[in-house]
Specification:
The structure holds five protein chains of five kinds. By secondary structure, chain A is mainly α. Chain A is built from 25 helices and four strands. In chain A, the strands form two sheets. A two-stranded antiparallel sheet of chain A has the order 1-2. In chain A, strands 3-4 form a two-stranded antiparallel sheet. Classes of the chains: A mainly alpha, B mainly alpha, C mainly alpha, D mainly alpha, E mainly alpha.
Chain lengths: 657, 484, 194, 101, 524
């Protein structure tokens, strides 16, 4: 067993730092703010590393700390579950977070919201740790929502910018759509398993499947486990920016670059992947859900890659790349190669964070300019950034021996190995073609930034310089990660081991033997270190880089020609497949219109005017006027009324008998 | 027939009546000897008369029915209780008159007429016989006719009196015609004998009995403003001097309701089904007229007139219930109504704007800012009239509704409750003027200690009865011992 | 038979004169008609052995009340426009209701209890008795209270009539404070269009 | 012999005429007062008839009271009318409508 | 005379109810000067709050029986008694009331400048009636307090309200009065049916047959539905909220709305279990309309208070949904939701009040960029907005999730027209919708650049303002992270309620009818 105090300290340190800086930031100097937060996160990273080594040694932890909610059979404890899956996430989160903290010291220097920013990112670290360390779905959900909140706050960090505020709101609401699904899934879990606890739930899955419960709705039927998994996956789609809930992720680039690196690339957006992997004991039992995961992942991987091809904003290119890469991870989950997904998650965290931070360094240098068309020839001025970004780009493109190669290749092979029918074939095509596109857009961006012609605005030019140490050091640390984690993962941790139980992940992931792609791979035969030479992805990546070299390094007028030649397609892709417009037309405006209609026509016209004023008040007023009119003031009318009264009652009684 | 032995009649139960009659005459004569500035002493004397009469009635209140004057007069707890209410209503009305009437011609006559009217009511509530009832009603009616028209130089006062008089006479005619038929069927004017006679009249006399019943009920309904015999009420209330309006709004209603109950209980028990049917419809009509027409009013006296009609509609639920709870409910209701209504009139009389007696709703604007005390009291009366709890008015409604539901008149009770919601609107509209609006013209309130005390006492009574109505309800239930 | 004849005479004249009261153009004629009606009613009273009441009716009503009426008619010097004007408009509805009501009353009046089976005609057995004495005996014994109250009613009527009509001085100007106090604010100021 | 119902019918006639006169007359208040007298008279005829046929003197006593009271009423009513006339200078029934609504 | 279960040995409930009135009388008669009035009112309300804390401390979590009982005959003629007592369902509301009154009085410290004395009196008397409602165990006593509440509230809105206050307050008054009259009819009818008693526990035990339950339920339903308010009887609320002064809105949203749902819990479910079950579809539909329809309407509001008012209706839709699911979780969630909403909605109205005090407009469009000048305020409002969205960690989340869980599992309990799962799914759309309207408002008001000169001049929150937000913040977070203290209080009582609501009275009613018939034949 692991030491629970130590485990508690890992999330608690960033939390305390965040609260202290958040509440008393106004009284603290900049230096104190960043020292407190950075120190706590680094400490937490060190502790995570310590825990990691212990886990490698076979230790684990499972326990509850207090009861959050309790009502009869509805029991929600707050507890932790530390196993191989958790600990690798903890490590990734804390390490990347530490780098980002340090980087931020330089990047956000002088910003009026300096200490607020540190408070946020420390708070984020805490939330993310809760998310990964929890031992039940509600602890997960707590972290899940908390990271969403911090993401919202950070996207809207520069609250004076209208676009930032809008992007923040969009991010939150789109995420809430996902959360809706997640919540429904959690409710279904409680309904069928009577618990929220991972262990209890997972232990009961086979029984439920055997029982064959199914749900009916409007004549539509599905098995309970499929319902649960699909609902949970909707949550994952929201958080991890999968089509069609991906629209918030590129917009989230409105936030400061460090958080783009930390939240919208390395950690938070991968929470969905983590969750699916965590729930592998459930997903494994639902072919439908797996197919859906594969399909959505593949569509996202391919579609976002196409959008990435033409973006001109440096951060947006990387953002679409992130979507695309998350798609890879989901495809991996869908084909039951969970270990590959987590592996790619880890490598991606390092190189994508690096890519963002390097981009941030560039942006910093060109005075907050993000448009690729206004950069170029920055290689000389920023050597460290140049090198580190090159490493990241190569890693992303999947060039051996950089980290991305190892994980991506494993995924593609797994997809190829898994028989899933049409969906599987589509996925294989998608991930393969996306490799080419990834390489192309990555290097397009790279060349446009550092090579090509010098298009930097005249007044910015004197400002261009290499970033300070505090920025470059995290870049270098991450570059090491981007270089080595892939090889380390395969060789050191034995992640690709098809016998999951024997590999690094041990029992933390679950795959049915019936569809274990890695097993299939293993059966197909051993590969040597050189086997990449014979695989398609490698060559696709190389050709992508080559095309980018051709178009943006050599023949720099080619892109414009190409764009003109394929105008409709180009415009379509440039406008991001018109997703935003689609949502505006089909969801946002109709909802607003419906709201206004219900208000004006329903509440005001029908209920207030019609029913209340017209019906009841109108009736009362009509009665009032009638009564008033009867009181004419003439004595003979009064007398007549009396006589009528006598007459009517008497006649009534006479007739009644 | 042999020469009858003239025995001295039993007169002891009439001591309060005799006292009041004597005092009324004393005031009538004594007033002539008072200088103009001392005429207010007539008023004090009249109040004293009410108080003493109250003591007399209270000390004499019997535990069972006592008859006097050869059975033409009955004193039972029911009558005693009603008399106490009548004294209170009259005394309060006199208090309101002290300042209002002091410059009019015939102050002494005014107070004396009030006392005579009160005497009429006392006789009404004690009558076991149509003769006594008729004479009592007429005594009361003549006094009120004159009082309504008392401001003889004010057009609306005389007009009100004229209308009231014409319609009142018509009602008297109708009542008498009915009595004559009942007499024809039964050969007696005595309630008990008439009741017995009706019960035995059989089918051959049914039509005559029904005619008599309808006409008698119509005649009495006029006195208590049951629609459609209510038409005089708004005009008379508006035209009459305000204290007279106050006087008319409670005491005669008590007398009318009491005699109505007596007639129903003693004379028409065998016609229960018929009169309940009639009253049900009349009650709905009355509530509708009272509560709906009141909304349209800008003059508070007129509004309160319609409000009275509306309340009579509610009170009728107790009569329709026709059991001890219902009749007790009528007494409870009228007791509480006495306080809240007289209180409201007291505030109206106290209020003067720019030297003009305020009667329009607009005149109340901003009262709360100038005189929070009166505003609070008025607010309490109005909420109480609307029937909101912790104020007495709620219990008034409660008891009659309860009686109605107990006897199965569920739909009637629901109708009544819905009308009470409509009614709440015009009461709270006055609260709106008092509390929400700004003052426009300066107030100069009447300075009169007795009237201020009236406001205080009635306000406290309204709250007190709202918080602890138990004893009142018990007393009213006990007061019914004599008749049911 | 004679009695029946007298009855028809009195009854017919009473009804006709009553109609004349309602329909006459001139108030003076109306009062005169009413007097005639009372005379006939007194005649009916005599037929019913109620001599005292019949006499009283003539003495009090014709002798005093009707004179009072006439006095007021003259006093008010009203210029008499047609009383019947506008009557026709309301006659249909009012007439129908009155007719039905009348029919109902007559039906009630002729119902079984009042038929000779229900109340046999006593004849004029009471003629030996002195009607006035009988009334007196009753009035001062059983109905003594009523008598007392009636006295007070008369007093009230007296006081009331005086209070309402007595004029103090009409030839001098004097301030009427109550009028000032009670004036309706709306009446105080008239906006005049200029 | 004259039957009871004949007297009652006469009374009913007078009653109805009184009532009709009351609400059909739109011009002269005095006529209204006279109509009321007619109604009271019809009551008296009723009472007298019943008193006779029932051989019960109390009916006549009642008539006595009705007459007394009616006389008082007339006094008060005419007084009110006079007071009204002084204010309005009219006894036209159509004019008595300042109070309404 | 029955044994009264009261561990404290003194009539604490009576003291809690009437201490504010006593204070009001003292202020009315003896206290002069605005400042003195404010301090006295504060002292009285704090004292009341401390007194009600005793209820919390001495409350026995282990029993569903009424506690701190008191009994005095009141109107013996009708067997109306002054019967007080609390159980786990009502006790939290008393604390909520006494706490929010303190907040209201503090919040009105500076912004009420006219008729301060009357204002404080109105609030203290209002507190009396509200605590009375929650403590009453006699039908008529309940009704008495229920209706008496109208008077102070009518004045609060009407005297200290906004431009259109007269319309709003009269609408409020008549709606609620009209709604509750039928409750009186139902109470009286029950009185005669159940053997001349208004004792709630006796009524709960009495076996009404279905027809009786049906009509009684409807009578209560209208009263409670107006108060909650439920669509389509809700239109008074936005008006009332918009026009009410800040503290009026606070108490309106914080307590008054709860009275309706509390009524369902206290009357409808235990007295008419069969009718309640019968009407589940109706309640479900109305609740879902409240969640979806009202949320959409809320989104389009341009007036902040109106928006929050609509949001309150939507949240109360959750409460009514939970109430009529008869599962332990759903009912506890509903109760917890009311308490949580009491804090959150109150705080949001206070936020609007803070802005209103500075700019005297509630139009969202008039603001923008408030965060630049009022960072503290922005943080506070962010917290409550997120609580309104029911983010985990805020109390509203607990409520929402428990209601949803209870709803989701309700079809294990009984057959429904459509599976309750789908009801829960439909209700869960609130997760998205509440975020839409709340965040959109927050964005438009707080975020953005400073362009409007009026906004530039706004000072940040004072210590006093922070002072009345502080307890609410603490409570929202505390209950969000560790709700067990409250849940423990309500567990047993709710379990008892579930027992009552899911059982049927029909067998007993049938048996009773048989017995009566037998008795009649014997008598005949």
């Amino acid at each position: 067993m692991l030491n629970s105090t130590e485990l508690l300290a890992i999330p608690a340190l960033p939390l305390i730092a965040s609260l202290v800086v958040g509440l008393f930031g106004w009284a603290l100097k900049e230096k104190l703010s960043h020292t407190i937060t950075s120190a706590s996160v680094i400490l937490s990273a060190l502790l995570s590393a310590h825990v990691f080594t212990q886990v490698l040694g076979g230790a684990s932890f499972y326990g509850n700390f207090w009861t959050w909610m309790l009502s009869d059979t509805f029991v929600v404890p707050v507890g932790m579950m530390i196993d191989q899956l958790t600990v690798i996430m903890m490590l990734t989160v804390t390490v990347v977070s530490s780098c980002v903290h340090i980087y931020t010291i330089g990047y956000m220097h002088g910003d009026p919201g300096y200490s607020r920013f540190f408070s946020y990112i420390s708070g984020f670290t805490f939330s993310m740790l809760v998310l990964v360390m929890g031992n039940n779905f509600f602890t997960l959900f707590f972290g899940w929502e908390a990271v969403g909140l911090v993401s919202y706050l950070l996207i809207g960090f520069w609250f004076k910018r209208e676009s930032a505020n809008f992007a923040a709101m969009k991010a939150f609401i789109v995420n809430r759509v996902g959360d809706f699904g997640f919540l429904v899934g959690v409710l279904a879990i409680w309904y069928y398993f009577g618990s929220f606890d991972y262990r209890d739930v997972f232990a009961q899955v086979p029984a439920l499947v055997a029982q064959g419960d199914s749900l009916h709705f409007l004549g539509w039927e599905m098995s309970a486990i499929t319902f649960i998994c699909l609902s949970l996956f909707v949550g994952a789609m929201g958080k991890s920016g999968q089509v069609p809930l991906h629209v918030w992720l590129p917009d989230s680039m409105e936030g400061p670059t460090p958080i783009s690196a930390l939240i919208h690339a390395a950690t938070m957006v991968t929470a969905g992947v983590f969750m699916v992997a965590r729930c592998s004991p459930m997903f494994e039992y639902s072919e439908t859900a797996l197919a859906a995961v594969v399909f959505v992942g593949a569509v996202t991987a391919w579609m976002c890659a196409t959008i990435g091809l033409v973006q001109t904003d440096i951060k947006r290119v990387i953002a679409y790349s992130t979507c695309s890469q998350l798609g890879y991870m989901f495809v991996a989950c869908g084909v039951s190669a969970y270990s590959a997904a987590i592996f790619h998650l880890m490598t991606h965290a390092y190189f994508k964070a690096l890519l963002f931070l390097a981009a941030g360094s560039v942006i910093h240098a060109v005075m907050a300019e993000q448009d690729l068309r206004k950069m170029g020839q920055l290689r000389k001025a920023m050597p460290v950034t140049y090198i580190t970004m090159l490493i990241a780009a190569l890693a992303l493109s999947g060039v051996p021996p950089f980290a991305g190669f190892w994980s991506k290749d494993l995924i593609i092979e797994a997809v190829g190995a898994r028989e899933m029918g049409l969906v599987g074939d589509f996925a294989y095509f998608a991930v393969l073609s996306a490799v080419f596109m990834t390489a192309f857009y990555t290097f397009r961006m790279f060349f446009l930034t550092f090579h090509n012609s010098d298009r930097v605005a005249a007044k910015t030019k004197p400002h261009v310089h290499e970033s300070p140490k505090v920025i470059t050091i995290p870049l270098m640390i991450l570059a090491v990660g981007a270089l080595l984690t892939g090889a380390w993962g395969v060789m050191g941790l034995d992640i690709a081991n098809p016998e999951i139980a024997n590999g690094y992940f041990g029992s933390s992931l679950f795959v049915l033997d019936a569809h274990n792609p890695l097993m299939t791979l293993a059966e197909e035969g051993e590969h040597g270190w050189y086997h990449f030479v014979f695989t398609a992805p490698f060559w696709l990546a190389i050709s992508g880089i080559g095309l980018a070299y051709a178009m943006y390094f050599r023949e720099t007028d080619m892109p414009a020609k190409l764009a003109a030649a394929s105008k409709p397609v180009y415009t379509f892709i440039l406008n991001k497949w018109y997703w935003d417009e689609l949502y505006a037309k089909t969801v946002m405006y109709p909802a607003q219109g419906l709201g206004r209609w219900l208000w004006q026509k329903g509440d005001l016209a029908m209920i207030d005017k019609g029913l209340i004023h017209g019906g009841i008040v109108g009736g009362v007023l009509a009665g009032m006027n009638r009564m008033r009119a009867m009181q004419t003031g003439y004595v003979y009318h009064y007398a007549f009324a009396m006589i009528i009264g006598v007459f009517a009652t008497l006649t009534y009684l006479v007739l009644k008998g | 027939m042999n020469p009858v032995n003239i025995n001295m009649p039993v007169i002891a139960p009439l001591i309060p009546e005799m006292f009041v009659a004597v005092m009324a005459m004393v005031i009538l004569i004594g007033d002539l000897f008072l200088a103009k500035e001392h005429k207010v002493w007539s008023g004090y004397l009249a109040i004293l008369t009410c108080v003493v009469a109250g003591f007399l009635t209270f000390s004499m209140s019997p535990s069972h029915a006592v008859t006097a004057f050869y059975g033409l007069f009955v004193l039972d707890p029911f009558a005693s209780y009603a008399k106490l209410l009548i004294y209170a209503g009259t005394a309060l009305a006199i208090i309101l008159s002290l300042d209002y009437i002091k410059d009019e011609f015939g102050v002494g006559e005014y107070y004396s007429l009030m006392l005579f009217g009160m005497l009429g009511m006392m006789i009404i509530v004690s009558s076991p016989n149509f003769v006594t009832m008729y004479l009592g009603l007429e005594l009361m009616a003549l006094c009120t006719y004159v009082l309504v028209g008392f401001q003889r130089d004010v057009l609306r006062s005389s007009e009100a009196a004229l209308k009231y008089f014409i319609l009142g006479s018509l009602a008297t005619g109708i009542l008498l015609y009915g009595i004559s038929f009942l007499y024809g069927v039964t050969g007696s004017f005595d309630f008990a004998s008439v009741g017995a006679g009706i019960a035995h009249s059989g089918s051959s006399g049914r039509l005559a009995v029904l005619l008599g019943m309808v006409l008698v009920i119509a005649g009495l309904a006029f006195k208590v403003s049951i629609a459609p015999f209510h038409m005089w009420t708004p005009d008379a209330y508006e035209g009459a001097p305000t204290p007279v309006t106050a006087y008319m709004s409670v005491a005669p209603k008590v007398a009318g309701l009491v005699i109505l109950i007596r007639v129903l209980v003693d004379v028409m028990p065998s016609l229960h089904v018929e009169y309940v049917t009639i009253f049900t419809w009349l009650a709905v009509l009355t509530m509708a007229v009272g509560n709906l027409a009141a909304i349209a009013q800008r003059n508070i006296k007129r509004m309160l007139a319609y409000s009275t009609i509306g309340h009579v509609g509610f009170v009728m639920l107790g009569i329709i219930a026709g059991n001890a709870d219902g009749y007790a409910g009528v007494l409870v209701y009228m007791t509480i109504y006495l306080f809240m209504n007289m209180g409201a009139f007291a505030v109206i009389v106290l209020m003067r704007r720019d030297g003009i007696q305020g009667e329009l709703l607009d005149d109340f604007a901003g009262l709360s800012k100038v005189h929070p005390g009166y505003a609070l009291a008025m607010g309490l009366y109005l909420f109480s009239l609307a029937g909101i709890p912790f104020l007495g008015g709620f219990w008034g409604k409660y008891v009659v509704f309860m009686a109605a539901i107990e006897t199965g008149h569920l739909y009637l009770a629901i109708t009544a409750l819905l009308f009470s919601v409509v009614g709440a609107f015009y009461y709270i509209r006055v609260v709106k003027y008092i509390y929400f609006d700004d003052t426009r013209v300066e107030f100069n309130f009447v300075e009169n200690r007795l009237m201020q005390a009236t406001v205080a006492v009635t306000a406290i009574a309204v709250v007190g009865l709202g918080l602890y109505p138990g004893p009142l309800i018990n007393i009213c239930k006990a007061a019914l011992g004599g008749i049911i | 038979m004679l009695e029946l004849g007298f009855f028809y005479m009195f009854a017919g004249l009473a009804v006709i004169s009553a109609l004349a009261v309602v329909l006459s153009r001139n108030s003076v004629h109306a009062v005169m008609s009413l007097i005639l009606c009372f005379f006939n009613a007194a005649g009916l009273f005599f037929l019913l052995d109620a001599e005292f009441i019949g006499i009283i009716l003539i003495l009090v009503y014709v002798g005093a009340v009707m004179v009072l009426f006439m006095f007021v008619v003259m006093l008010l010097e009203v210029n008499f426009v047609s009383v019947r004007e506008g009557m026709l408009k309301y006659l249909p509805v009012g007439g129908v209701i009155a007719l039905i009501l009348f029919a109902e009353i007559v039906a009630a009046a002729s119902s079984g209890v009042f038929s000779p089976d229900g109340i046999p005609d006593p004849g004029h057995v009471a003629q030996q008795l002195n009607n006035t004495v009988e009334i007196g005996k009753m009035l001062y014994t059983k109905y003594l209270l009523g008598f007392e109250i009636a006295a007070i009613v008369l007093l009230v009527a007296l006081v009331g009539a005086i209070v309402l009509t007595l004029r103090v001085r009409t030839d001098v100007r004097y301030q009427n404070i109550s009028k000032q106090v009670n004036v309706n604010p709306a009446d105080r100021m008239h906006k005049v269009k200029m | 012999m004259v039957p009871l119902s004949a007297y009652l019918a006469v009374a009913a006639c007078l009653f109805s005429i009184g009532i009709v006169g009351l609400f059909l007359n739109r011009k002269n208040v005095l006529i209204i007062l006279m109509c009321i007298e007619l109604i009271l008279l019809s009551v008296n005829i009723n009472l007298a008839a019943f008193s006779h046929f029932l051989q019960d003197i109390s009916g006549q006593i009642f008539i006595f009271f009705v007459l007394t009271v009616a006389a008082s009423e007339v006094a008060v009513g005419l007084a009110i009318l006079v007071a009204y006339y002084r204010n309005r200078r009219s006894i036209n029934v159509d004019d008595i409508n300042t109070l309404q609504g | 005379m029955m044994e009264l279960n009261n561990v404290l040995g003194f009539p604490i409930l009576t003291w809690s109810i009437f201490l504010p009135t006593l204070g009001a009388i003292i202020i009315w008669l003896f206290v002069r000067g605005e400042s003195a009035v404010r301090w006295t009112a504060l002292a009285v309300s704090v004292l009341t709050f401390l007194l009600t804390l005793l209820l919390w401390i001495y409350f026995d979590n282990g029993t569903a029986h009424m506690q701190f009982e008191e009994f005095h005959p009141w109107i013996t003629a009708f067997n109306v008694n002054y019967r007080l007592g609390v159980d786990g369902i009502s006790m939290p509301f008393i604390l909520l009331t006494s706490l929010l009154t303190v907040v209201c009085i503090v919040s009105a410290w500076d912004c009420i400048k006219t008729r301060v004395k009357e204002y404080m009196l109105a609030f203290l008397i209002l507190e009396t009636t509200l605590i009375g409602v929650f403590a009453a165990l006699d039908g008529i006593l309940f009704y008495f307090f229920w209706e008496a509440m109208l008077i102070p509230m009518f004045l609060i809105i009407g005297v200290w309200g906004g431009k259109n206050r007269v319309y709003a307050t009269i609408k409020f008054f008549l709606y609620t009065l009209g709604g509750s009259v039928l409750m009186l009819v139902a109470l009286l009818a029950m009185y005669f049916k159940a053997g001349h008693t208004f004792d709630l526990q006796a009524l709960m035990a009495y076996p009404f047959n279905f027809e009786w339950q049906f009509w009684i339920w409807i009578g209560f339903f209208i009263a409670f539905a107006v108060k909650v308010p439920m669509w389509p009887l809700h239109t008074w609320l936005p008006d009332a909220h918009t026009e009410a002064p800040t503290a009026g809105s606070v108490i309106l949203a914080g307590i008054l709305l709860k009275m309706g749902a509390y009524g369902f819990l206290r009357f409808s479910l235990p007295i008419c279990p069969d009718a309640s079950q019968y009407f589940v579809p109706l309640m479900v539909v109305l609740s879902l309309i409240a969640v979806v329809y009202i949320s959409l309407v809320a989104m389009m509001q341009s007036d902040m208070k109106r928006l929050i008012a609509y949001s309150s209706i939507a949240h109360m839709g959750f409460v009514t949904l939970g109430t009529f699911m008869f599962t332990q979780q759903a009912l506890e969630g509903a109760i917890f939701g009311m308490i949580s909403h009491g804090f959150v909605a109150a705080a949001l109205f206070l936020c609007v009040g803070v802005l209103y005090d500075r700019m005297h407009t509630r139009e969202i469009g008039a603001y923008g960029g408030v965060v630049n000048v009022m960072p503290k305020f922005a943080a506070v409002m962010m917290l409550f907005c997120m609580a309104n969205v029911a983010l985990p960690g805020a109390s509203a989340f607990i409520a929402e999730i428990m209601v949803l869980a209870g709803t989701f599992s309700a079809d294990q309990l009984y057959e429904m027209v459509i599976s309750s799962k789908w009801v829960a799914v439909a209700a869960a759309t609130s997760v998205v919708l509440s975020a839409c309207y709340t965040l959109w408002m927050y964005k438009r008001v707080v975020f953005g650049d400073l362009v409007k000169p009026e906004v530039k001049a706004m000072p940040d929150m004072s210590w006093r303002e922070l002072g009345f937000f502080a307890p609410l913040m603490v409570l929202v977070l505390w209950l969000g992270l560790y709700p067990m203290p409250v849940l423990n209080v309500i567990h047993v009582s709710v379990a008892n309620l579930v027992e009552q609501a899911t059982s049927t009275k029909l067998h007993a009613a049938h048996a009773l009818a048989q017995a009566e018939m037998l008795q009649q034949t014997v008598l005949r």
